[in-house]
Design a protein that fits this description.
about 300 residues, alpha/beta, Rossmann fold, nine-stranded mixed beta sheet, binds zinc ion
C-alpha cells in the first residue's frame, strides 16, 4: 500500500508496527485503521452475519451466514494483503487470563465496540491491569447520540468505570433485582451513517493513541485532549439526556449549532473507583514528587446510562 499522501498527518511507520485488538463491532473503523497503515489486528467476536446486518454494517449479502470476524479478516486482507489478522470466534468474557495476556497483552490499543456491558467492564479491568490504551465506542438509545470513552495510561486519570459509574450502579441494581435503567440497550435504530459518524471520531482518537507524540496533527491529538476523555456526539438534532440539552449547555444555542458535532468533556477520577483507585495510588507512590491532581471541586459530567455498542 502506498501511504505517501497521508504521511504528513499520520506516523505511518508507528501504525505499521502497531497491533490493535478489537472486541465486537467497529468493522468500518477497523478497516479505516488499516487504511491508515495499521498492519496487525486481533479481532474477537463470535457473531454470524444476518441479512439485517447488511443494512447497518460494513457487510454485504454475500457475507450472510459467515462469522463477522471471518468476513472482516477477508476484507482486511483484500484491502492490504500484508496485514496480519488473527480472529477469535470467542466471547471476550469467557477468555482465560492466559488468552487475555497473549492477545491483549501484545497489543498497543484495545477497542471495545461491543454492546455487552460485561465485556466493556472486563475491558476496563484488563486495560488497567495491562497498562494499555483503550477505547470504548457506543451509541445511545435509538442512535440519537454517540459516545467515545478512552483511556491513555499516564495521561488520562479517569478510567471507563469512573466515567460510566452510573452504568455500573444500574448493572448492580439490576443484578439485585431492583428497577434500574437498561445497561445493554439494543442498537436498533442505529444506521450505518450513525455508526460511521461516531467511528470516524473514534478513529481519530485511535490513531492519536497509537501515534501519540508524533510531530503531526494526529500525534498531537491526545496531548491536546488532555483529560477530555469522554466525547459525546450529537446525531439527532433534538437529542436531550434525561430532558437536558447537554450539547446546547456546552456549545450554546446559536442557530448555527445544529447537529453532528461533539463535546469533549474533562473527566476526573472517582476517588474510590474499584477498578483504578489502587493503580492510581501505586503510581502516585512511585512518583512522590508528582503533583497530585485530585481537583473534584467542579461537577464532573457523567455518561448517558442508556447506551449500546456500535455492534449487532
Ligand atoms: Zn476508575
Amino acid at each position: 500500500m502506498n501511504f505517501d499522501r497521508i504521511r504528513s498527518s499520520i506516523d505511518v511507520e508507528r501504525m505499521q508496527n502497531a497491533r490493535v485488538t478489537v472486541v465486537g463491532g467497529a468493522y468500518g473503523l477497523t478497516r479505516d485503521l488499516v487504511h491508515c497503515g495499521l498492519a496487525s489486528v486481533v479481532y474477537i467476536d463470535y457473531d454470524r452475519i444476518e441479512p439485517s446486518n447488511a443494512a447497518r454494517q460494513d457487510f454485504d449479502l454475500t457475507d450472510v451466514g459467515r462469522y463477522k470476524a471471518e468476513a472482516l479478516a477477508a476484507s482486511l486482507k483484500r484491502l492490504n494483503p500484508d496485514v496480519q489478522v488473527t480472529f477469535l470466534l470467542r466471547n471476550f468474557c469467557e477468555l482465560s487470563q492466559e488468552d487475555v495476556d497473549q492477545y491483549l497483552g501484545q497489543s498497543d490499543l484495545l477497542i471495545f465496540a461491543t454492546d455487552s456491558f460485561a465485556a466493556q467492564a472486563r475491558g476496563n479491568i484488563e486495560a488497567l491491569r495491562l497498562g494499555k490504551p483503550a477505547l470504548w465506542i457506543g451509541l445511545y438509545q435509538g442512535a440519537r447520540a454517540g459516545e467515545i470513552v478512552y483511556y491513555s495510561p499516564g495521561v488520562t486519570r479517569a478510567c471507563y468505570r469512573c466515567i460510566c459509574s452510573g452504568r455500573y450502579d444500574a448493572f448492580e441494581r439490576q443484578a439485585r433485582g431492583e428497577a434500574a435503567p437498561p445497561v445493554n440497550v439494543p442498537s436498533t435504530g442505529g444506521t450505518i451513517l450513525d455508526l460511521h459518524l461516531v467511528d470516524a471520531i473514534a478513529g481519530q482518537i485511535a490513531v492519536g493513541l497509537l501515534t501519540a507524540g508524533a510531530p503531526n496533527r494526529m500525534g498531537r491529538l491526545i496531548g491536546q485532549l488532555d483529560q477530555r476523555n469522554l466525547l459525546q456526539v450529537k446525531i439527532d438534532p433534538e437529542y436531550t439526556l434525561n430532558g437536558r440539552d447537554i450539547f446546547g449547555q456546552y456549545l450554546g444555542n446559536h442557530p448555527a449549532q445544529f447537529s453532528f458535532g461533539n463535546i469533549a468533556l474533562p473527566m476526573e477520577p472517582e476517588p474510590d473507583c474499584p477498578d483504578c483507585a489502587a493503580i492510581r495510588r501505586a503510581a502516585q507512590e512511585a512518583m512522590p514528587c508528582e503533583q497530585s491532581s485530585n481537583d473534584t471541586s467542579h461537577a464532573t459530567p457523567r455518561a448517558d446510562r442508556s447506551r449500546s455498542g456500535s455492534s449487532a
